[in-house]
Amino acid sequence: MFGKEIRQYLEKHGFEAFTPKAVLFDMDGVIYDSMPYHARSWHESMATFGLDMAPEEAYTYEGMRGVETIKLIARRQWGRELSDEEAEGMYEVKSAKFKTFPQAKKMDGVEELMRKIKAGGMKIVVVTGSGQSSLLKRLEDDFDGLISGGLMVTSFDVTHGKPDPEPYLRGMEKAGVKPYEAVVVENAPLGVRAAVAANIFTIAVNTGPLPDKALADEGANLIFPNMPALRDAWKL
Question: What distance, in Å, lies between the first and last C-alpha atoms of the chain?
Answer without folding.
Answer: 7
